[in-house]
Amino acid sequence: MRHTMRGTRFGVVRHVDLNADLGEEVTDDAALLAVVTSANVACGYHAGTPAIMRAVCAEAAARGVTVGAQVSYADRAGFGRVALDVRRAVLREQVADQVGTLSVIAGEEGAVVRYVKPHGALYHRTMDDEEQALAVLEGSRDLPVLGMPGRLLEIAAERGRRVWHEGFPDRGYADDGRLLPRDRPGAVLTDGARIAERAVGLAERVDSVCVHGDHPGAVDHARAVRRALLAAGWALQGLR
């Protein structure tokens, strides 16, 4: 658990990160970057282009927002939400390509890629599939890993990689602690007040709160979550 605390005259300041998916060509990236503290930047395999990556990284650098590589299966048609059977060696090279591309662009815009986070189907697959998890780790150098409990984070920790746990206030959870599939009732929440309330509860248990950026209400939800976290006494800080 990453939460950092420091003493103040009035007690303890608790820190938590607020992240969102950026560069996916479906939301207002500039508006989200004014709210979040970490940006999971699409690296071209499920969404995004070099020009979009550049714009996001430049704005993130200007605002002091941490940049992370949001890696995916090569699946633009399915927005990275289709589980693909990709050999470990191939997936490793695909992840390396995505991280490498974003790293070069980020560096040219004054930013640094500080972590990796799988997207969509790859995110969920690596929670259980050791071969796929290893491919992501091998392709992402020694970057810290952001995700939910599962094999990816377990192996990363075993190998001395830093891991950060995240929670999703705008998604429904099953009894096993995993996210409900998007086609299940209650899987995607749209009530901004409810999302903000859930974010405050999640902040007690995770290092980073994630607001999805791929729906029309993304910016408003992110703003509501930020206000709620600050009101509850949390200081927002990017993943570093």
What would you say this structure looks like, in words?
The chain has 240 residues and is α/β, with parallel strands linked by helices. Helix content is 38%, strand content 20%. The protein has eight helices and nine strands. The chain has helices at 29-33, 50-63, 88-108, 120-125, 130-139, 151-158, 192-203, 218-231; strands spanning 5-8, 11-22, 38-42, 66-71, 113-118, 145-147, 163-167, 208-211, 234-236. Strands 1, 2, 3, 4, 5, 6, 7, 8 and 9 form a nine-stranded mixed beta sheet that branches. Strand 6 (145-147), helix 6 and strand 7 form a beta-alpha-beta unit. Helix 3 packs parallel to helix 5 (130-139). The radius of gyration is 17 Å and the shape is globular. Residues 5-10 have low confidence and may be disordered.
**Order of helices and strands, N to C?**
EEHEHEHEHHEHEHEHE
| Percentage of residues in strands | 15-25%
| Largest sheet features | 9 strands, mixed
What is the CA-atom radius of gyration, in angstroms? 17 Å
Coarse structural class: alpha/beta
Helix content: 25-40%
Total beta strands: 9
How many angstroms does the end-to-end distance come to? Answer: 13 Å
Mean pLDDT: 93
Number of helices: 8
Shape: globular
Low-confidence stretches: 5-10
What's this entry about, in short?
This protein is an alpha/beta fold.
Labels describing this entry:
about 240 residues; alpha/beta; nine-stranded mixed sheet; 8 helices; about 20% strand
Question: Secondary-structure map with pairings?
Answer:
Layout: E1 5-8, E2 11-22, H1 29-33, E3 38-42, H2 50-63, E4 66-71, H3 88-108, E5 113-118, H4 120-125, H5 130-139, E6 145-147, H6 151-158, E7 163-167, H7 192-203, E8 208-211, H8 218-231, E9 234-236
Parallel strand pairs: 2-3, 2-8, 2-9, 3-4, 4-5, 6-7, 7-8
Antiparallel strand pairs: 1-2
Helix pairs in contact: 2-3, 3-5, 5-6, 7-8
